[in-house]
Design goal:
By secondary structure, the chain is α+β, with helices and mostly antiparallel strands. The protein has a domain at 8-120: Aminopeptidase, CATH 3.40.630. It has 5 helices and 7 strands. Helix 1 (17-24) crosses helix 3 (41-53). The longest helix is centred in the last third of the chain and has 17 residues, at 102-118. It is globular, with a radius of gyration of 15 Å. This is RimJ/RimL family protein N-acetyltransferase. Residues 7-162 form the N-acetyltransferase domain. It comes from Paeniglutamicibacter sulfureus.
């Protein structure tokens, strides 16, 4: 099996907004996000502004974004948001890097970084049922399909001791 590429996650900064905008306006990337359509510039600006806000981490809605880099090149974004039921994670990989194990390496990094940031291992992800690649990626890393809510499958990280 191919080794995943070495990926580093660093806090998202304003200078990363153009990279994110490129993905958010690409229909290949947004196909499984929200309504499945590329985002307009106002939505992109609003999301970037919220990502940079850095609300207190114990507040519902607080989020932290991370730029995923391979050898100093941006390859994706990891998003985390505190919800009442835990920390929701999401990940976007730039299409130029699909098929190389980048998403898995990003989630591996998220499983280390995000619990440290939020002081919680209660992680979950919501996945479009048609996104079988993402579902497999999560289950291989200890997530379990819990329920379908509002048309999305919810995968919850199962504690190692369970």
């Amino acid at each position: 099996m191919q080794q995943p590429p070495p990926i580093t996650l660093q806090p998202f900064q304003e200078s990363d907004a153009a990279f994110f905008a490129g993905m958010a306006s690409d229909e290949r990337v947004t196909r499984f996000v929200g309504d499945g359509r590329p985002w307009d510039q106002q939505t992109i600006n609003d999301r970037v502004r919220a990502a940079l806000q850095e609300d207190a981490l114990d507040l519902a809605g607080a989020s932290r974004w991370f730029l995923a880099k391979e050898a100093d090149e941006p390859v994706g974004i990891v998003v985390s948001t505190r919800k009442d039921e835990g920390i929701e994670i999401g990940y976007w990989v730039s299409p130029e890097h699909w098929g190389r194990g980048i998403a898995g390496a990003m989630v591996d990094g998220a499983l280390t970084t995000i619990p440290e940031v939020y002081k919680s291992r209660e992680l979950f992800a919501r996945v479009d049922p048609a996104n079988t690649v993402s579902a497999k990626l999560l289950t291989r890393r200890g997530f379990q399909l819990e329920v379908n809510q509002c048309g999305l499958d919810r995968y919850t990280l199962v504690p190692v001791n369970s």
